[in-house]
Write a structure and sequence with these properties.
heterodimer; A: 299 residues; alpha/beta; Glutathione S-transferase Yfyf (Class Pi), Chain A, domain 2; Rossmann fold; four-stranded parallel beta sheet; B: 57% helix; binds iron/sulfur cluster
């Protein structure tokens, strides 16, 4: 299994654990990731709120490079994924739009390849049975609130792989790793996105709802598939708690980190030591740091 | 006047907006489901439903000048849930673009962030997170916003003073051509 890999800007900066853990688990599962050479930024919200054409042309260039290699595209970041699927749909739905895109990028993009969320690839292409077979250190007793946010599941005609109101793919993945997904009402609520920078007063309120919702559901931690959501949820937790006279201690994981832990990788090799909310106490209390001795002796 | 009747005012602007956003404003029957699910409606001057009503009434300038499109987080909950298939997120996005073209930016910080983000992409081909935030803080006058997070981000190797650069010529060309396209 080989994919064109589009890490996106965040995975080379604040989201580097996501990149690290993605590469580890992909290798472990025999997925070859071919990083798109010279890839450019997808333009994110700033582009689509400024210029409709720019918003589809920026991602299309990356997709066109992957297409030339005959490869489907694996995108870990939910925000990039959304912009790239929008560009793919724009090119597929209108020949005139496809021509416009091609005039702008100076390439012949035919949208014959498929752009996939990394989560979709893991759950629906690799498959949960295959993943479960690789688990040597099940996440027994770990109660996880799966947080999908917005752009992984909306609008469904663009994202196209999970239910927009009650998505299940991350919950099912957690279960296949031996963990316990909790049922909770805020899995698709917005984290505030860029408002943590521009209107922190608004974002704080949204984040507070998510933390309290996860805590009330009895979750030990949150799991995310987006570096922007992750940064908001992890870095701002203490601050938002303080602003609401509350205190939360909910470690946040990328789903690839949980996979890596279940495959018995050391937290350091997955980047888990670089989070803001300390993770070690939780992993210790659930005995998730112990090496799977029996398995080692077997091999 | 019928609830869903549309007034004739600002017909040309309205037509342009409907085309760009892919909606027909008269399709909205004012049920309020969009507003009920909107995470930032509490901070808006006009809720998503009210924005639709303004447009139905031909009060285009009111809608373009509103804070709402700038506070919209592009979460797409409204469009996903609208029982009439109205793409309200697209309306918000189109109003924001239109407002900017008219030089109206009621939420200065939001407008500044968009501009600096795109500048960073245009210059480097990729967005340079640290440069973006520093520039934003400087220009918004909130010099030390989030400065407390910086040392740990630095230690963890998550921020760097050097911008990654890639595909710069291709990206510069995309910017130039896309801008002339939309200007047409
Ligand atoms: S949900 Fe749709 S029909 Fe209902 S008020 Fe909003 S735009 Fe109008
Ligand atoms: S897309 Fe904007 S207007 Fe629609 S629900 Fe989300 S924040 Fe509200």
């Amino acid at each position: 299994m080989k994919y064109a890999y589009y890490p996106g800007c965040s995975l080379h900066a604040t989201g580097l654990e996501y990149d690290l853990s993605t590469r580890q688990v992909a290798k472990h599962l025999g997925i070859e990731l071919w990083e798109i050479p010279d890839w450019n930024c997808c333009g994110a919200s700033a582009a689509h709120n400024t210029n409709h054409t720019l918003a589809v042309a920026l991602p299309a260039r990356n997709l066109a490079i992957a297409e030339q290699e005959g490869l489907d595209v694996a995108v870990p970041c939910a925000a990039c994924f959304n912009r790239m699927r929008a560009a793919q749909a724009a090119a597929r739905n209108s020949e005139a739009m496809r021509q416009t895109i091609n005039d702008i990028i100076g390439m012949d993009y035919r949208a014959s390849n498929e752009t996939c969320a990394l989560l979709d690839i893991m759950v629906n292409r690799v498959g949960l049975e295959t993943i479960a077979e690789k688990v040597v250190k099940p996440l027994t007793g770990l109660k996880v609130a799966a947080y999908y946010g917005c752009l992984l599941v909306r609008p469904p005609e663009i994202t196209g792989f999970d239910d927009p109101e009650n998505p299940q793919s991350m919950d099912r993945l957690v279960a296949s790793l031996g963990g316990t997904p909790v049922d909770w009402p805020f899995k698709i609520e917005c984290c505030g996105a860029g408002h943590t920078t521009t209107r922190p007063d608004i974002a704080s309120r949204l984040l507070y709802r998510i933390y309290s919702g996860a805590a009330a559901a009895g979750a030990d931690c949150l799991v995310s598939a987006c570096p922007l959501c992750f940064l908001n949820l992890d870095m701002r937790q203490e601050q938002v708690g303080r602003e609401h006279n509350a205190s939360f201690s909910l470690p946040v994981f990328y789903f690839t980190e949980l996979m890596g832990l279940a495959f018995a990788y050391a937290p350091k090799d997955l980047g888990i030591n670089r989070h803001f909310v300390p993770v070690a106490p939780l992993l210790e209390s659930k005995e998730l740091l112990r090496h799977p001795v029996t398995r080692r002796e077997e091999t | 006047m019928e609830l869903t009747a549309t007034k004739a005012g600002a017909a040309k602007e309205l037509q342009r907006l409907e085309k760009a956003a892919g909606v027909e404003v008269r399709n909205c029957y004012q049920c309020g489901k969009c507003t009920a699910g909107c995470p930032v409606a509490f901070a808006m001057d006009y809720s998503p439903r009210q924005i639709m009503r303004l447009l139905q009434l031909g009060l285009y300038d009111e809608a373009v000048g509103a804070h709402s499109p700038w506070l919209c987080a592009s979460c797409i909950t409204c469009s996903t849930r609208c029982p009439k298939g109205v793409n309200i997120a697209g309306v918000m996005e189109t109003l924001r673009i239109e407002a900017k073209n008219q030089g109206l930016v009621p939420e200065k910080a939001v407008g500044l962030f968009d501009d600096l983000f795109l500048q960073s992409v245009q210059q480097n081909g990729r967005v340079h997170e640290m440069g973006l935030i520093l520039r934003f803080n400087l220009k918004s006058g909130k010099w030390f916003k989030d400065a407390a997070f910086a040392p740990k981000l630095w230690r963890d190797g998550k921020i760097s003073p050097r911008a990654e650069k890639a595909g710069r010529e291709a990206v510069a060309r995309i910017f130039a051509r896309a801008h002339s396209q939309e200007g047409e």
